[in-house]
Amino acid sequence: MEIQSKFLEAGLLVSLTGVLHEAAATSLQKRLEGVIWYNRHFLLLDFANVTQVTAAGLRLLLPSVQQVQEKNCEFIVINLNEEILALFKKTGFNILVTIKDSLDTANTYIAKKYNNRRK
């Protein structure tokens, strides 16, 4: 799995490419541990180029989601295909994270939330 990250005004965007299985998720978890400490309000995980996710791979993301939430930040997942979205729903992972269909939709959501935080 290839993992790229970049800072956006809204938060940190982590883009994934390939299959998210147990071994890849372990690598991703270690990478996310490093970027979570940048203390951004939002962590966006882009699944646009993810071809498959296993339940074990998804389960290993849970500690990262918890770390983000402990810092009063929000974990946003974008660009899920139908199969991966179905897995998120089947496992209940959709309750733990915010899911948006695109980066544009996520940015709109973040802008509204950020403006509400400032009031």
Characterise the protein shown here.
With 119 residues, the chain is α/β, with parallel strands linked by helices. The protein has one domain: Transcription Regulator spoIIAA (2-Layer Sandwich). The chain is built from 6 helices and 5 strands. Strands 1-2-3-4-5 form a 5-stranded mixed sheet, sandwiched between helices. The longest helix has 16 residues. The N and C termini lie far apart (40 Å). The mean pLDDT is 88.
Short description:
With 119 residues, the chain is of the alpha/beta class. The protein is built from 6 helices and 5 strands, in the order ββαβααβααβα.
Percent range for helical residues?
Answer: 40-55%
Total helical elements: 6
Residue-averaged pLDDT, rounded? 88
Oligomer: single chain
Question: What characteristic shape results from the CA principal axes?
Answer: globular
State the total count of DSSP E strands.
5
What is the CATH architecture term? Answer: 2-Layer Sandwich
What Rg do the Cα atoms give? Answer: 13 Å
Q: What is the beta-strand fraction?
A: 25-35%
Question: According to CATH, what is the topology?
Answer: Transcription Regulator spoIIAA
What is the name of the CATH class? Alpha Beta
Alpha carbon gap, first and last residue: 40 Å
Task: List low-pLDDT spans.
Answer: none
Strand order of the largest sheet: 1-2-3-4-5
Domains, number: 1
Largest sheet: 5 strands, mixed
Q: Assign the CATH superfamily.
A: STAS domain
Tell me the series of helices and strands, N- to C-terminal.
Answer: EEHEHHEHHEH
> Which structural class fits the helix and strand makeup?
alpha/beta
